[in-house]
Amino acid sequence: MDDELLELQRQFEFAQQAKSSIRLSERNVVELVQKLHELRIIDFELLHTVSGKEYITPEQLRHEISGEVNKLGRVSLIDLADTIGVDLYHVEKQAQHVVSEDPGLMLIQGEIISQSYWDTVAEEINERLQECSQIALAELAAQLHVGSELVASVLEPRLGTLVKGRLEGGQLYTPAYIARVSAMVRGASRGITVPTNLSLLWSTLQQLLQEMEGATGIAVEGSFFQSLFNGLVKEGEVLGTLRAGIHWTPTVFAIAQKECVDSFYSQNSFISYDSLQKLGISQPIQYLQPRYPEGIPLVTAFVHPSMIEMLDAAIEDAIERGSWLDSVSLLPTSFGAQDASKILSLCPSVQSALKVNKALIVGDSYLFSSSFVKDVYDRVEKEMETLSHAASSTVVMGDDLHMVNEAKSGHDLSTSSDAAETVTESGNRKRGTEKGSKKKKGKSSGMKAVSADADSDNEDYIPTKSKKNQKKGKDASSSQVADSRKVAKKDSIKAQEENVPSEEWLMQKLAALLPDFEEQGVDDPQTILIYLADYLRPKLINYWKERRKTLFTENVEKMKRLLDNAQRKLDESFLNMQLYEKALDLFEDDQSTSVILHRHLLRTVATSIADMLFHNLDIHNKLKNGTQVEDSQNSESISLGPGERTAIAKSLPESQSKRALAVVEALEGKRVETFMTALRDLAEESGLLLKKLDKKLERTLLHSYRKDLTSQVSAETDPVSLLPKVVSLLYIQVHCRALQAPGRAISVAVTRLKDKLDDSAYKILTDFQTATVTLLALISAATGDEQECSSDRIRSKKEILESQMAALKALVLGSAQA
């Protein structure tokens, strides 16, 4: 065997020393390896080294990585790449395989660390810990160049074995140090006798440890103290209750607190929440209800049922005697009005009395028997009847204004007051429903209801009264009117103050009728009287309004008929006014003629509309204020002067008065548009609806107007009156406009028809117009000395005109028939 080995060695040495006949370069070798790999003769992966002169298999790379880790315990992947000479990518990839196959290894932040390395580190940490008593994980992590979480995760399984210590709040402590701090926590906790926030206690212990260990000591976290404290509580070494983790209530305090609450509650049958707050009980009701299930929680106190029984007996006695009771006076001084109100509602006698209307709770704490309240009400009612009889003997109906104002202003204290307001406004509301009016509901006006401003308009009644006297033909002097106005005003104010009881008046009456409040030792009788007056006053107001309501019933139907008639007349006249207004647009280029036409329309049609509306508003205002108004003449024939219109406008409520005065001012102006705007504002404020002229209505009205004019022209025998009617009819035929022109504007109106008529028709019209002007000039120029001569000339001219009337009528009548 030895000989064979020696022979083989010689042959191998000979082969090594022999020179090859074929020499390959490195490039040839690389190409050869690639070819072998392509032919799958080499069927495993090869990795290039960094130098490019060597190949290495993945298995060999993993083997070398494992070797380095076993040798060093902690190796950086970058260092492995330099040591092995392989690219970092391949090292990282194979390192993951190595770590996944070996559970004792971990790959952290580009480093492979073995468990043996951590065992060695743990032994070193333990040696240092025993020397220092405590070490911060942050310090260890900085030394090891890893995260604190990793250090904690590595040390936790080795605590108690390789590391003799305890990990709390990022700190490592020795058992001796923990026992020392636990003793401090136990002593401090046992010394607490009142509820304490543990955060403050831990801060104190931290300062104490800092002083004991000096500048080299490490600050201990509060969580470490809390953990030790929780352990002591769990073991029963510290007794108490822990809330929200930091609020500590010692058992000794809870026992003393319970004894104090039990003692006070048993002696007084109640306990206030303020007292419990002072004892440190933040939720008194939740604390008391489980302990005293029979107790009753109030707003500021917790009471025993015996207190309700005591109060119930006193209430029952007061109801039987027909008297009253202030429950606050029978309850402890710490009880408030809300407590008294709640405890009253819990008394059985109160509950039964309220069901059968035998008692009444006024305010929060006052209880009156129904017989007592009825007696007081009857006595005050008699006082009001005396006042009402005295007032009605001197005042006609002027005080009704104040009553309606109160009802409208929001003193709707019962169903009766609402009924009174409904009766007052029923006429207008029904009319508004029938007409489909879209007027604003929020506005107060004379046509809707009496506004609160009517009180300040009492003086505006002066012109109305003066106007009324003028219409009736009375020759009273202005001084007499002023004197009568002052007397009526004083009586009205007196009635307003006395008939609707104010709080002051009612308080005075109650104080006079009930002197026994002071006799019974009530400190402040006014307090009781205020509550009683607040309860009685709505009933007294309703009683008074019910009695006064009959005074308005008669006027309601009259007001309804008046509004309906006003709306009907206003619809017809306002549509005609809009129709006539459209004809004015034809003369806008002639300023002087336009002014004449505008003024003529204002003084005729507009004045008639305004007089009719003002007359109806005046009557409605008087009816609304309770004044008896006799059936007046037909409002269509009413003719008012400027002074009368101004007087009526000032007598209306303030909101209407301003708009009515604007209408009066517009009548004296030069533009119809101003009057139309002012009239619309007044009608809207008064609750009336003005219809707008549309195309269909315009055609209907023009047809009716044309038909009427045609019949008038056909029947007309006066040549002077014929010309304006013919001109108006021509304007309807030519321009489809209803022209209302005075005599001064006829010549201009005729001239504007020149381009619209043929020459013969226009000549007939101009000749007749010239002859009419001549006739009127002769009539106006006639004097006494030349009366006979002038009469002949006038008669002659008139005969000429009469002879031309047939031709002039043919101009329009023929066209109309055609």
From TrEMBL:
Name recorded for this polypeptide: E3 UFM1-protein ligase 1 homolog
Biased composition (Polar residues): 412-426
Keyword line: Coiled coil, Transferase, Ubl conjugation pathway
Domain E3 UFM1-protein ligase-like C-terminal, chain residue ranges per copy: 698-811
Residue ranges of every copy of the E3 UFM1-protein ligase 1-like N-terminal domain listed in the record: 4-288
One Gene Ontology MF term: UFM1 ligase activity
InterPro entries to which the protein is assigned, alphabetical: Ufl1, Ufl1-like_C, Ufl1_dom, Ufl1_N
Region (Disordered) location: 409-500
GO cellular component, one term: endoplasmic reticulum membrane
Domain of life of the native organism: Eukaryota
Transferase as UniProt keyword: yes
Coiled coil: 549-583
Entry similarity comment: Belongs to the UFL1 family.
A Pfam match: WHD_UFL1_5th
Residue ranges annotated for the E3 UFM1-protein ligase 1-like domain, each copy included: 563-693
Any GO BP annotation: regulation of proteasomal ubiquitin-dependent protein catabolic process
